[in-house]
Amino acid sequence: MASLKNKIVFITGASSGIGKACAEIFASKGTNLILCARRIDRLNELRKTLIKKYKVKVLILQLDVRKSHDVKKVIGSLPTQWKQIDILINNAGLARGFSKVHEADITHWEEMIDTNVKGLLYVTRAILSQMVERKRGHVINIGSTAGHEVNVMGNVYCATKFAVKALTQSIRVDVLDKNIKVTSVDPGMVLTEFAKVRFSGDENRSNEVYEGVTPLSPKDVAEAVLFSANRPKNVNINEIVLTPICQASSTQIYRNKA
Ligand code: NAP
Q1: What is the spatial order of strands in the sheet that 87-90 belongs to?
Q2: Is 254 a catalytic residue?
Q3: Whose CA is nearest to atom 16 of ligand 1?
Q4: pLDDT tens, N- to C-terminus, the chain (258 residues)
Q5: Residue to mutate (ligand 1; options 194, 200, 210; most atoms within 8 A of CB)
Q6: 222 CB near ligand 1 (under 6 Å)
Q7: Structural domains of the chain, with CATH
C-alpha cells in the first residue's frame, strides 16, 4: 500500500456528500488538502475540523467549476507549496430536474453539462498539465452507474456521466506514457444532498428516491476512492462500480416497502 502522508489532494465539491467524505478519509491518512466548492462557509468549517482532528494542512478555495477563467486563475495562482498536486478528485457535480427531453427546462441541462462535463474538463486541464510536467499524479473522476446505463428521466444527467466515463478513458490514453494514473469511481445510490439539489429542495420528492432502500453512505464511496489512491506505484485502478446491495444497476432497484 502506498503512503499518502504529506501528499496533496485537490477535491472539487468538498462542501458536501462524497467530496466531504473524501476530504475526511484522506485527512485521516495524513494528506494535505485543497478543497473547493462555492459554499466557502462550509469549507471553512470543514477546514477547522480537519486541522484540529488530523493536524494536516488544508487550503480552501471558493470556486465555481463552471467558470473557466476563474478555474485557470485560481489554480494558476496557488501558493508555491500547494502547486504540486498529487491527486485530483473531480467530484463536483449534480443532477437537476426530472423530465422527459421534450418537456425539460433547458437551464437544467446547461447547469449539468457545464458542471459535470465542462467543469471537470477545466479543472483537469489546469492540474493535469502540471502532473504531466512532473510525470507523476493521479486523476480520480466520480462518475456514476448512470454513466453505464440510462434510467428513466435520466437523459441529460446520464449523458454527462457517460461523458465522464469517456473522458476518464480518453485521459488515460492521453497520459499513458506519463506515469499518471486515471481512475473512475462510479457509485449507484448514495445518501447525500444530491436528491435535494435535483428536486430543488422538495423534501417529498427527494425522500422518494431513497424509499425502501439503504443507500451507500458518502464514506462507502470515499473508501473506494482511497483504495484506488493507495495502490502500489505500478497499479492503476481503471474503474470501480459500487452500489447498495439492493441495487443491481441504474434501473434495477429492490425497494423493501414492507
Ligand atoms: P452533494 O452532496 O450535492 O455534493 C455535490 C458537491 O458538488 C457539493 O460540494 C457542491 O458544492 C459541489 N458543486 C456543485 N456544483 C458546483 C460548481 N459549479 N462548482 C463547484 N462545486 C460544485 O452530492 P454528491 O452525491 O456528494 O455528489 C458528488 C458527485 O457524486 C457528483 O458528481 C454526482 O454526480 C456523483 N454521484 C452521486 C450519486 C448519489 O446518489 N448521490 C450517485 C452517483 C454519482 P457547492 O454547492 O458548495 O458548490
Answers
A1: 58-62, 32-37, 8-12, 87-90, 137-142, 180-187, 239-242
A2: no
A3: 92
A4: 889 999 999 999 999 999 999 999 999 999 999 999 999 999 999 999 999 999 999 999 999 999 999 999 999 999 999 999 999 999 999 999 999 999 999 999 999 999 999 999 999 999 999 999 999 999 999 999 999 999 999 999 999 999 999 999 999 999 999 999 999 999 999 999 999 999 999 999 999 999 999 999 999 999 999 999 999 999 999 999 999 999 999 999 999 987
A5: 194
A6: no
A7: 8-242 (3.40.50.720)
